[in-house]
Structures are given as structure tokens and as C-alpha cells.
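Sample intake sheet
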Amino acid sequence: MSGMMGEGWYFEDYEVGKEIRSSSRTVTEADIVNFAGITGDWNPIHTDEEFARKSVFGRRIAHGTLTFAIMTGLFARLGIIERTIVAFYGVDRLRFIKPVFIGDTLTAIARVIEKEDRGNAGMIVMEASAVNQRNEIVLSSVVRFLVKKRGDV
């Protein structure tokens, strides 16, 4: 497989059924505040401790889309798409299953479920999820992306 020269995996390197697990990362208050600032989503369930305390969650939670962004970042850190990704094609069946709290530690897990040769590139389809420190699934999705094939420039 690739990776020795700072390149990610090519279409041919992906195997249906292969599972990939990332390193872990703890969600901080700074993550939530920075994400609110970037997106403009200042919903009090994320940013107002007193409001959130009275909610069904009992405290502030991370934005679901922040959790998704952290998951994609954890996958990026693996280097498997470094210099080989052509395009992020989309997400199917994205679900926010459990709340993510400040102090939760997330790990990304993916399993290749489909490969499709598209001529100049290949479509990779993966079941991608994020789990917390208790190994509970907090987010599930199916992601699709195009990657270079061997010999492609």
C-alpha cells in the first residue's frame, strides 16, 4: 500500500470488508465555541450552560455537524486520502445517535462496503461512524469519495 511518500491509498488499495480505526480526540469547550463562531450556529443547547442544564441532555452538547467534522478530521489524520482523493462525493444516512459532551473522546471507525471503478477514478463507499470513550456509537453514516487509481497523474 501507499503512504511511504506521503500519499494515501489508491482505488486498488481498498478492500471491501476492511475496517479502519483512527486515533482518538477529546472534544473541548473551545471546539464547540470555535465551531459556533465559524458556522454561526449559536443554539443555546451548545453554548448556554444554564439553558442546556434544563434540557433533556442536562448540559451542553457538541453540534452534530461538529461531531461529523471531527470524524472526517480523524480519518484525514490517517493519511489514507492524502494526495489521492479526487473528490468527497457525499454522505448518505447520516445519523446523530447519541449526544457528544464536552470531555468525550471520539474515535472514527470505517468499513469499506463498496468499490466502483469509474474509469479515471474509483468510488469508495464506507460505513463511517464515531464512537465515544465507552465505545458507544454517537454518529453513523455512509460516506462516498472518489480516489485516484494507480498510474493516474
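Comment: The mean pLDDT is 95. The chain has one domain: 11-148.
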